[in-house]
Predict the 3D structure of the following.
Amino acid sequence: MSEISRNSVGIVSAQTAHFDAPLTLKNGEILPQFDLVYETYGELNASKSNAVLICHALSGNHHVAGKYAETDKNAGWWDNLIGPNKPLDTNKFFVIGVNNLAGCHGSSGPSSIRPKSKKTYGSSFPIVTVEDWVNSQARLLDHLGIETLAAVIGGSLGGMQALQWTIAYPDRIKHALVIASAPNLTAQNMAFNEVARQAIITDPEFYDGDYYAHNTVPRRGLRIARMLGHITYLSDDAMGEKFGRKLKDKIKYSFDVEFEMESYLRYQGDKFAGEFDANTYLRMTRALDYYDPALEHGGDLSKALKKVKAEFLVVSFTSDWRFSPDRSREIVKALLDNELTVSYAEVTALHGHDAFLMPDAHYHAILRAYLQKVEV
Amino acid sequence: MSEISRNSVGIVSAQTAHFDAPLTLKNGEILPQFDLVYETYGELNASKSNAVLICHALSGNHHVAGKYAETDKNAGWWDNLIGPNKPLDTNKFFVIGVNNLAGCHGSSGPSSIRPKSKKTYGSSFPIVTVEDWVNSQARLLDHLGIETLAAVIGGSLGGMQALQWTIAYPDRIKHALVIASAPNLTAQNMAFNEVARQAIITDPEFYDGDYYAHNTVPRRGLRIARMLGHITYLSDDAMGEKFGRKLKDKIKYSFDVEFEMESYLRYQGDKFAGEFDANTYLRMTRALDYYDPALEHGGDLSKALKKVKAEFLVVSFTSDWRFSPDRSREIVKALLDNELTVSYAEVTALHGHDAFLMPDAHYHAILRAYLQKVEV
């Protein structure tokens, strides 16, 4: 048995589903057709009752577990969670990863070619919402012949999608795992998003979102956005422990890299700016900003959850200042107001918002225990 | 009595002191000559024992109190603190405000003309430190014939200067008021500075710091830096109370201003980018990064404060996540280790780091009480 296949889903490949029926978006626009790229791990059982959908966050995608080739350096972004005998056990569950609409990894988005036109969508790609994503994901389930999900799981922006699934499709969801998430963003969170977007939009290479036609990308702006993002993903303490005030070398009194943390941020910014699409980044942050299921209910989240039927596991992390435990508790309270079945875990973790992606033993034990009792 | 003169220092004017003796900087460079622009309020007494120096923070300057003309819309940046019968009472004290070296309000800095050359310093202006500022401020005291300060006062980066005064010139300082400050920056604080600098430096209009010669300014980068700064000056709760998720209008599903907070941030960013010098901003943030008096003492702040003689008032604010109360307590502990006289107040305040500039009644009462007992 090779290294990769031990507790791994192994070599995986992505598939594309094409949808020809128009999708009406929350902003009123209609997407006449679209593609969703997805991966699956494990086997769908005969009664099609063991499907679990993974919803991704800001920069995530459908490649959640496994590798495309033995030689791949990195596995999918939640590979530590998903596989045979892992907390989300692919011996039991059929797991689906999907790239969201407006993404940049194969699903229809600003950087994909608009059918018939042979040109990229660019700025004309709609500003989609969490609600739109969930509706498009429901189409994917239809395509796969799956009526009901054993569970929907997501962290951060993915947790908002998991929550929205239970609101929009109460009869199609048995369990929702909402991790390091919130029922809406705080003003501070939205402010960070706004700075990130402004860095991109005011980059001279942005060309109002139609940079593809100019054979360029707003690399500088996207780099700044990502550097800023990384600060908010880590806790102050985690940054302190990881980097502190450690110098790369003797102080040079310059604006070059002096401290190790600067080197880390620049590396992360450069890497991301070379891989990710700026128009996707803009849309992901806007989806975060807009999501607020309580808004149509006078700000009353309990009312917004009135039709929900799913059972919930809500998880937060003590050092997460982006989606703090307080925000998870708001979700828990509103679920309990509706007499729903909720488990809540507040995990002591140093790593801030990023903790939801990490294989913390206590955290994974909680997910494992919860998923073991999910009936399929 | 006009409105302006009630409890106000009234109409003020700035003066410039020129220094011809070279100043050796911490980075090894020598500034052969320099100017400092300053203002004074109140009267220096015969024994010259009532002088108080105000040290400014990142974007501050020498215009601390009063107005230049009755028609001025705004008074100096700490006008709520300083004036006849105000907490820092100009009936008792002779107050000095000074613009730091590398500033952009009249003291020698990147945007000023290098003597003889008729060209701006631009990128050639040195990267100065808190220690350099204090040394240059000591020259200003010499120029004014003041040997000893009754007090030195500063908030944030200004507090670092106040602390440094007590280390570098223990015999010239009776009292130090160190407000909303820290003995060094955390990795997270430095990370925000790095993102701000990278936004400026990667702006195509930056021209390696010599944008003056190109008749332009890196406005986009400076705007992003300032927007980011504003998020860190306010607490999450203060942003929540001030803006929350309030919309400007109906949601438009766009990247334009949708939420009130976005409008505020853009306004602050635009205003600052039109007024402040980017090269100054870079240098102010680097001075913050580098300040770390414990570094030469194996990280032991108590040892760094061994020669200090001043009495201290240290003030922090509960909601300040940029310079948290924990950081002020580190200063207090190190002072107490040296058996110095220290008063410490942790003020309950909503407004985050910005609280040090606000006329909170409890905060001002503490400053008033402390300054009343300062003997002159």
User: Anything to note?
Assistant: Residues 174 and 310 of chain A are 5 Å apart (CA to CA). Chain A touches chain B through 54 residues (CB under 8 Å). Chain A has a mean pLDDT of 96. The first helix of chain A runs from residue 130 to 144.
